[in-house]
Amino acid sequence: MNKLRINPTRMLDSFNQLASFGASSDGGVNRPSFSEAHLAARNWFQEEIKKSGFEFRTDGAGNHSAFLPASDSAESAKQSHTESEIASGQRAPLAMTKTLLFGSHLDSVPKGGRFDGALGVMAAFEVLKTVKENEIKLKLNLEAIDFSDEEGTHMSLLGSSALSGHINPDDMQKPYSGRENFLAGLARAGLSEKSLLTAKRPKESVAGYLELHIEQGKRLERAGINIGVVSAIVGYGSYHLSFIGRADHAGSASMEDRLDAGQGASAFILAARELVMRDFPNCVANVGKIEFAPGASNIVPARADLMLEFRSPDANQLSKLDDALIKLANEKATQFGLKLISEPLGKHTPNLMSAEIQKAFQDSCDILGLSNTTLASGAIHDAQSLVDVCPIGMIFVPSVDGASHAPREFTEWEDCVNGANVLLQTVMKLAAN
To answer: 40: how many CB neighbours lie within 10 A of its CB?
Structure first.
């Protein structure tokens, strides 16, 4: 089995077909979750699964997958173990055969790239095809999965959170897209709030989850390393911050008399950058959205609303960064004579990858003659939703110039193939035990 490899030409063909859904003229894709392009891509994937001879599966969260039963699984043995035989004591009830999940997501950010998520799904699908056509006998069921709305068009990690049982009705009241858009998106996909709550899988049914992804950074490319074995996914926190001042005439109000919410918010943003770079190595903070009110060039802003997010691979460091940023926001509000309102939007602790799976990835790299290194993921991924359900593991392949979430996102096809072959070897190692 060490000599088994995926079919790179076949995987490229599937990848290019997928990239046509929501394709943009600049080489990227625009495939937000439950959009017309996203639903078309998922319909295509469903047809490809069936054409390839796999069982197609879906659930109440709209997660789509190709399923290949283990050679000696309960699914294969149902015909010989009838209910009457079990009831009469002639046969013992069959133990549940666990399933090894691997995949990613097909949705994209608005005006995103072709590789983020999509590579992970197409590589997983190709691994499944390779195992099936070579008639590899494995002890675990294999399932190549496409999770719903990883990117958070409506709710971040929606499908994987539903599968792991981490969604509750309260989470659905304030989706990122607004209630109306969220409900409309679910309806287009044939889903509902009620159906989302039915997607949870029993822990005892899942053996593990593996994910191949582009790095979305420059570390591998800079170091000239083939594969990044992920040690942890960063934890993150987010706030809605409002700096409240006073509206005045922008021409007649002197600079010293102003309670300018815009200046207070801007001062915080610049100071937050200095704080993180000075005191919190390996951490990041970002303000990706800011709005001024009333919002006219001749009015001093009375209010500035911004979205703050920060990330760290260490739980203790994440907590300290949280405290430091809010303290800094209060200091800047005071400096400019403003009131600060801080609304926490959520906080997630860092998630560690399985040591066993990391070792399996590293051994697979050795078999394939590929260099590898251990690193943390600065981005969030579906894998972290399953951390309390099963062992999880991720690998990265290099991103050219570190680009992602943009049309210029690109990974050399040789690197994509390397990642798929590492995934294949690791799947066979874990499923053969």
So the answer is: 14
